[in-house]
Write a sequence for this structure.
């Protein structure tokens, strides 16, 4: 078993229900192999939820979904102790967070207090209920979705919460070929609610996934790659259009993602193109633009792209 061959099989399985999102699927696989969380941003109807469900089924992982709403409470996420009058004891009622793959749907529709309930879970892979820690099943991966166009009744994610996500992946409309394929799939009877009928199979066991994550960790990284990552991260702190640059955690995230994409491409070592390819997805949610730059119509992606392109790529 190689990471490259398994990644190709996963793409084939997910491709049965997802059309035209090859880059998105690959970036999500990078996060899974790097054992990190993903923030998925896209307009409604571009298959964000379907993508996560399909991947969880392909990987044979336990899947759970939380629909975030303004009245959702932290205990609705992590769980609580419930008194049993028959025994006189308190019994733990686990929340939906106790799964391998958690879909936090429309995470920006719930207040900061409930958003923060995921902080410990995402960082420590555990939750604390009434002072007692409870470990979450490994691997624990959060895929959060948000809508970039509907801001009424939403609570933007704080910077500290966004920094917990390894990647922020933007999902755009599919091209003509892909969208026509989607239309034909539905015409032929496909229903997103029933992935079994689509023929998606579990092709990876938990042990296989952990073995692949170990392979990624052992990927060779030369000194020039470390220096290239540092150069990019440092440049975000010095850019005139950025008020808050990327932290050392961003550099670690970029390193881990570069190792994962190298393994997916069938290499045992990282090359500069791996770093450059994933830098935008790793950094776009970790920097803040200056107000003047936003007034001028600049976007985070546009500024970061300029910063990344201006760095000397090592040979």
């Amino acid at each position: 078993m190689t990471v490259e061959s398994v990644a190709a099989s996963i793409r084939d399985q997910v491709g049965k229900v997802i059309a035209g999102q090859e880059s998105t699927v690959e970036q999500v696989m990078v996060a899974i192999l790097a054992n990190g969380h993903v923030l998925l941003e896209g307009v409604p109807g571009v298959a964000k939820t379907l993508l996560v469900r399909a991947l969880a089924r392909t990987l044979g992982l336990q899947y759970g979904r939380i629909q975030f709403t303004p009245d959702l409470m932290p205990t609705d996420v992590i769980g609580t102790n419930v008194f049993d009058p028959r025994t006189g004891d308190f019994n733990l009622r686990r929340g939906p967070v106790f799964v391998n793959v958690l879909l936090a749907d429309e995470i920006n529709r719930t207040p900061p207090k409930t958003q923060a309930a995921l902080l410990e879970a995402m960082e420590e892979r555990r939750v604390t209920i009434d002072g007692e820690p409870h470990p979450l099943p490994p691997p624990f991966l959060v895929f959060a979705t948000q809508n970039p166009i509907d801001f009424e009744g939403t609570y933007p994610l704080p910077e500290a919460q966004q920094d917990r996500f390894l990647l922020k992946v933007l999902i755009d409309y599919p091209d003509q070929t892909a969208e026509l394929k989607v239309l034909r799939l539905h015409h032929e009877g496909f229903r997103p609610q029933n992935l079994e009928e689509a023929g998606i199979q579990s092709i990876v066991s938990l042990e296989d996934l952990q073995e692949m994550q170990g392979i990624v960790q052992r990927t060779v990284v030369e000194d020039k790659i470390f220096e290239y990552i540092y150069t990019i991260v440092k440049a975000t702190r010095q850019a005139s259009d950025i008020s808050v640059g990327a932290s050392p955690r961003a550099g670690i995230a970029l390193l881990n993602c570069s190792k994962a994409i190298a393994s997916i491409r069938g290499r045992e070592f990282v090359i500069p193109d791996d770093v450059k390819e994933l830098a935008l997805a790793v950094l776009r949610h970790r920097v803040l633009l200056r107000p003047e730059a936003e007034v001028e119509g600049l976007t985070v992606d546009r500024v970061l792209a300029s910063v990344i392109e201006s760095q000397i790529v090592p040979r």
In short: The longest strand covers residues 79-84. The chain has a mean pLDDT of 91. The chain has 14 helices and eleven strands. The radius of gyration is 20 Å.
